[in-house]
Specification:
Elements: H1 7-25, E1 31-33, E2 39-41, H2 42-58, E3 64-66, H3 74-77, E4 82-90, H4 92-97, E5 103-110, E6 113-121, E7 126-131, E8 136-138, E9 141-142, E10 154-160, H5 166-173, E11 179-185, H6 189-196, E12 202-204, E13 208-209, H7 210-222, E14 227-229, E15 244-245, E16 248-250
Parallel strand pairs: 3-4, 10-11
Antiparallel strand pairs: 1-2, 4-5, 5-6, 6-7, 7-8, 8-9, 12-16, 13-15, 14-16
Helix pairs in contact: 1-2, 6-7
């Protein structure tokens, strides 16, 4: 099944969604709030329509899980071999603040592992893509782009821009290195920074959903890194009964 998926077609879908998002980004837009108080804009809805309809057209037999769709009951989806995991805009808060740090995220999950991922940041024109066994790329360049030769001397840490918890900050402050350079970033770009080598570690001791990480996690893994559960340092898994991710560390 994976060999039949054309990564470049998924890249084009992400670009089309990104173009639609940018048209809305550049004008005034309305903000609604979902039941969980998270913001929703017309850009989320439009991007979701483009991605889901395009994926259904190309691969009608692969189910889709998206942040903006009604979720399928676990009894049904636990039988899924392959499925798409989509976040049309990760970083809606960054979108609303107009700081450019939001992403379109499309992942293919096999059983509980992300095996393909596309992350597109349309405002800054960064395209990340990966397919299991074929490597990870940023704008056509193979990842990682750089490697820290002396982590004991200095660690580059990336943390959340809008959701930095006290626990995460304490973890960062206690890292065993002489010097810590900490940067803030929005959305799944944090995982991508670890994949490129711009950051050595991304700790997230706080809530995220599976669709927030799936696409970028595929890129992280193909770049030779991993997203570990904080509690047991096992790789995080997908399509759980509860779609909330545990606290995790990407390195």
């Amino acid at each position: 099944m994976l060999k039949d998926i054309d990564l470049e077609k998924i890249v084009l879908i992400a670009k089309e969604a990104g173009d639609a998002i940018m048209k809305i980004y550049e004008k005034d837009f309305t903000i609604e709030y979902k039941d969980d108080k998270s913001p929703l804009t017309e850009a989320d809805t439009k991007a979701n329509e483009i991605i889901c309809s395009s994926l259904q057209k190309l691969y009608p037999n692969i189910p889709i899980m998206s942040e903006e769709n009604k979720q399928t009951e676990y009894e049904i989806r636990k039988e899924w071999q392959y499925y798409w995991c989509v976040d049309p805009i990760d970083g809606t808060k960054e979108f609303i603040k107009k700081n450019g740090e939001f992403t379109v995220n499309i992942a293919l999950i096999y059983k509980d592992i992300p095996v393909l991922g596309v992350v597109y940041a349309p405002a800054i024109d960064e395209m990340y893509k990966a397919k299991k066994g074929e490597g990870a790329y940023k704008n056509g360049k193979k990842l990682p782009l750089k490697t820290n030769q002396h982590p004991e001397k200095k660690l580059h840490v990336v943390a959340s821009k809008s959701h930095l918890s006290k626990e995460t900050q304490e973890f960062i402050d206690n890292l065993k290195t002489k010097e810590i350079e900490q940067v803030s970033k929005g959305s799944s770009l944090k995982l991508c920074m670890v994949a490129t080598g711009e950051a050595d570690i991304y700790p997230r001791l706080g809530p995220t959903m599976e669709w927030d990480t799936a696409a970028a996690d595929a890129i992280v893994r193909e770049a030779g890194k991993m997203t570990f559960q904080f509690e047991n340092m096992q790789p995080i898994v997908y399509n759980k009964e509860n779609l909330l991710n545990p606290s995790f560390i990407v390195k």
